[in-house]
Write a structure and sequence with these properties.
It is a single chain. By secondary structure, the chain is of the alpha/beta class. It folds into two domains: 173 residues, Rossmann fold (3-Layer(aba) Sandwich); 104 residues, 6-phosphogluconate dehydrogenase C-terminal fold (Orthogonal Bundle), CATH 1.10.3660. The protein is built from ten helices and eight strands. The protein has an eight-stranded mixed β-sheet, with helices on both faces. Keywords: Oxidoreductase.
C-alpha cells in the first residue's frame, strides 16, 4: 500500500471504498448502467457477496491506479485514512468523491491531501438514503431524482466546469435529479437543520413511555416522525460531533420554540397557542410556495 504503480487509467472504471448502504447503492446503480465497478469493504465477506452479482472484483492496490472515479463511502475517518494511504498511487486525472454527511472536516483534510497531486478530490453528499444500513439494503435506484450537493476545490472556472461535466457523466447511471454547488461551511449549516436535527428529534421522540403502547393508536404522523429514529449510532455520533456547533444551535433553537408551546399549553392560553400553530403553518406554506 502506498507504492507507486505505473498502471494506466481505464476510462469509466469506478472504485468504491465501503459497500454499505451508500457504497452498495452506487455499485448497483453503476453496474446496472454498464460501468466497470470494483469495491472494497472492511468486512471482506461483504465484498465477496457483492462480487456475486454487483461488482467486477475487489478494489486492490493494483486496481486503484486504474480507476477514473473513486467513491469514498465509509465513515469520515475511514475515508480520510484510506485516501492518505492511497494518495500516491491514484491515477493522474482521477476524480475522488465522498458520500459523507458533513463537509467541513472531510473537505479540509482531503483537499489538503490532494493538493499538488495530479488527481482531484470533490466533496459530495448524495441526499438520499433510508433508516436501514448495510449492503443488503442498498438498491440501484437509491439516487433516482435525488439531489447531490457538490463541494469543489478551489480552481478556475474552466477547470471547475470541465471537472463537473466529467463527474456528471461518470455518475450518469445513478440518475441524480440535480447537483447543487456549495461551500463546506454552508453545507454543514443547512444539513444540521434538514437532516441531523430530524434524526435527533426522531430518536428522542421514541423515548417517551407512551411509545411502548402506541400500537393501535398511531398512523401516519407517528410513522413519519419516527422513521429515522432507527439509525447507525456509531456513524451518526461521528457526524453529529463533526458538526457540533451547527447542530447544537439548531437543537437550542428548537428547544426555545417547544418551550413557547409548552408555556401556552400550561397556561391554557388558547389565543397564544393558536397563534403559534398558525405561525408554523404559515412558515411551512411559504417554504413550499418558493
Amino acid at each position: 500500500m502506498g507504492e507507486e504503480k505505473k498502471t494506466a487509467l481505464v476510462p469509466g472504471r469506478v472504485g468504491i471504498v465501503g459497500l454499505g448502504l451508500m457504497g452498495g447503492s452506487f455499485a448497483k446503480a453503476l453496474h446496472a448502467g454498464g460501468r466497470e465497478v470494483y469495491g472494497w469493504n472492511r468486512t471482506h465477506s461483504v465484498t465477496e457477496l457483492a462480487e456475486i452479482e454487483t461488482i467486477d472484483g475487489e478494489l486492490t492496490d493494483d486496481v486503484v491506479p486504474t480507476c477514473e472515479l473513486i467513491i469514498l463511502a465509509g465513515y469520515p475517518q475511514v475515508s480520510i485514512d484510506w485516501l492518505v494511504q492511497m494518495a500516491d498511487i491514484l491515477s493522474p486525472g482521477a476524480i475522488v468523491i465522498d458520500t459523507v454527511g458533513v463537509k467541513r472536516v472531510i473537505c479540509e483534510r482531503c483537499f489538503k491531501i490532494a493538493e499538488g497531486r495530479p488527481w482531484t478530490f470533490v466533496g459530495c453528499h448524495p441526499m438520499a438514503g433510508t433508516q436501514y444500513s448495510g449492503f443488503a439494503h442498498s438498491r440501484a435506484n437509491m439516487f433516482h431524482n435525488a439531489p447531490m450537493v457538490v463541494v469543489p476545490p478551489k480552481m478556475d472556472d474552466f477547470e471547475r466546469a470541465d471537472m463537473l461535466e466529467r463527474l456528471e457523466q461518470l455518475l450518469e447511471p445513478c440518475g441524480f435529479g440535480s447537483m447543487t454547488l456549495s461551500t463546506p461551511e454552508h453545507h454543514d449549516e443547512v444539513i444540521a437543520f434538514t437532516s441531523q436535527l430530524a434524526h435527533v428529534v426522531s430518536n428522542a421522540y421514541v423515548k417517551s413511555p407512551s411509545c411502548t403502547v402506541h400500537k393501535g393508536f398511531s398512523a401516519g404522523s407517528y410513522r413519519d416522525l419516527t422513521r429515522v429514529a432507527r439509525l447507525n449510532a456509531r456513524m451518526w455520533t461521528e457526524l453529529f460531533l463533526d458538526n457540533a456547533d451547527n447542530l447544537s444551535f439548531e437543537i437550542g433553537n428548537l428547544i426555545g420554540h417547544l418551550q413557547e408551546y409548552k408555556d401556552a399549553i400550561d397556561d391554557r392560553d388558547a389565543e397564544r397557542l393558536q397563534g403559534l400553530l398558525a405561525d408554523g403553518d404559515r412558515r411551512k406554506r411559504e417554504v413550499e410556495d418558493r
